[in-house]
């Protein structure tokens, strides 16, 4: 059986292939410490679990769910958005629950792009958008990010040839993999730019609620007029330790929300209601819950950054997100470095190039393991680097 040409050009998803390799290592007796995926290890709030289990017993919740999500969940998202960002959303027209924000990233190109249209995509970037653009016959134009530009793209440097065919501008702050946050002035510029060039600005805010040192990342929808040109993706995966539940939302421009609702209702049949009910409960948690959880990640972040400094790896201290993004020593690619760590030190980190060519020279270390395992991983990293020096 021959697969489609587009699929044939699609490599296996890094984390799926890597998970298989980690499983093989573990099966052969290696104690692998995985700092690879940003998969929260801390527990889902018990209130959400209780809501889920109670709701699961109600036969009404076992039937097909509403295509556009439960009205109560759309309302809960709108309420949360108002409290968190001071932005008012119409729950009927500007909020769409998703099967995780990844699902929204994957389907948005089909909603707003035609074959041959250009997507302006940061490099490095979470890889899902580039794949989704390729699958609909869109063309990716790289927006290079670097340490020097604070991991923010230079919108004025986009060549006219790409800009004239561009339909979407993708941003992600707090940023995966770099940990960068965007100042409000940059969002103002991006909204202005999207309006001027007829682009849909797609802001991935999966890490909105993982933030440190008192920083509270802003939504792009806080900018005046943003709803005319922008949508934003949110997720309960990292915000409320609910990655396995697969639940998030698209918010913002009503035409795009309607378009994605139409596409989804043709190809999926909503989200299991008890999961939506658990999400409603999580979204009602007080900010103190998020702050307490973030204190744990912040402590881990400080351990990893301090260890990187001790080892001689240059790493910024991220104000948000689940990762530290150190530069690796010269002489090896980030892929060679990461696979050597897996093969010889029993640590899984993500090669920077998994996020694009500008990730070369970096690896991504996830903060989703307990302190003692994190310390053990950093000790192994130190020994590995010393042995290779
Ligand atoms: C930048 C970014 N966006 C979106 C997602 C998808 O998250 P989910 O589908 O669990 O909401 C991830 C997951 O790691 C991510 O790193």
Q: DSSP strand (E) fraction?
A: 5-15%
Would you identify the regions where 5 or more consecutive residues have pLDDT less than 50? none
Look at the helices and sheets and give the structural class: alpha/beta
The largest β sheet comes out as: 7 strands, mixed
What string, H for helix and E for strand, traces the elements in order? HHEHHEHEHEHEHEEHEHHHEHEEEH
Q: In CATH terms, what is the fold-level topology of the largest domain?
A: Aspartate Aminotransferase, domain 2
Number of helices: 14
Task: Give the number of domains.
Answer: 2
DSSP E strands, number:
12
Task: Give, in spatial order, the strands making up the sheet with the most strands.
Answer: 2-8-7-6-5-3-4
Radius of gyration: 21 Å
Mean pLDDT: 97
| CATH homology group of the largest domain | Type I PLP-dependent aspartate aminotransferase-like (Major domain)
Characterization of this structure:
The protein is of the alpha/beta class. It has two domains: 141 residues, Aspartate Aminotransferase, domain 1, CATH 3.90.1150.10; 240 residues, Aspartate Aminotransferase, domain 2. Helix content is 42%, strand content 13%. The protein is built from 14 helices and twelve strands. The strands form three sheets. The chain has a seven-stranded mixed beta sheet, sandwiched between helices. Strands 9-12-11 form a three-stranded antiparallel beta sheet, covered by helices on one side. Strand 3, helix 6 and strand 4 form a beta-alpha-beta unit. Helix 5 packs parallel to helix 6. The longest helix has 25 residues. It is globular, with a radius of gyration of 21 Å. The termini are far apart.
């Amino acid at each position: 059986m021959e697969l489609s040409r587009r699929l044939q050009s699609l490599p296996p998803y890094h984390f799926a292939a890597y998970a298989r390799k980690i499983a093989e290592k573990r099966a052969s007796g290696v104690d692998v410490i995985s700092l690879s995926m940003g998969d929260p290890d801390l527990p889902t709030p018990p209130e959400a679990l209780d809501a889920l289990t109670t709701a699961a017993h109600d036969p009404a919740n076992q039937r097909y769910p509403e295509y556009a999500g439960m009205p109560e969940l759309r309302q809960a998202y709108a309420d949360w958005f108002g409290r968190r960002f001071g932005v008012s959303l119409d729950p009927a027209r500007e909020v769409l629950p998703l099967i995780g924000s990844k699902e929204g990233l994957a389907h948005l190109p089909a909603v707003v792009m035609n074959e041959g249209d250009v997507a302006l995509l940061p490099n490095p970037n979470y890889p899902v958008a580039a794949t989704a653009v390729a699958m609909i016959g869109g063309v990716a134009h790289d927006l290079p990010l670097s340490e020097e530009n604070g991991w923010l793209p230079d919108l004025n440097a986009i060549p006219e040839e790409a800009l004239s065919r561009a339909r979407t501008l993708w941003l992600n702050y707090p940023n995966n993999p770099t940990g960068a946050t965007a100042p409000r002035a940059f969002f103002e510029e991006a909204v202005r730019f999207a309006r001027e060039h007829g682009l849909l600005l797609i802001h991935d805010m999966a890490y909105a609620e993982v933030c440190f040192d008192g920083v509270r990342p802003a939504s792009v929808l806080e900018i005046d007029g943003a709803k005319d040109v922008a949508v934003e993706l949110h997720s309960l995966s990292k915000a409320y330790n609910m990655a396995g539940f697969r639940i998030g939302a698209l918010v913002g421009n009503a035409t795009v929300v309607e378009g994605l609702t139409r596409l989804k209702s043709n190809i999926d049949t909503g989200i299991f209601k008890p999961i939506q009910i658990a999400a409603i409960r999580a979204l009602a948690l007080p900010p103190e819950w998020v702050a307490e959880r973030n204190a744990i990640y912040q402590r881990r972040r400080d351990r990893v950054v301090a260890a990187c400094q001790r080892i001689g790896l240059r790493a910024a201290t991220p104000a948000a997100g689940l990762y530290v993004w150190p530069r690796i020593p010269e002489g090896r690619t980030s892929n060679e470095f990461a696979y050597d760590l897996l093969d010889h030190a029993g640590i899984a980190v993500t090669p920077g190039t998994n996020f694009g060519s500008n990730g070369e020279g970096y690896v991504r270390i996830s903060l989703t393991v307990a302190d003692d395992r994190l310390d053990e991983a950093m000790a192994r990293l130190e020994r590995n680097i010393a042995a290779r020096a």
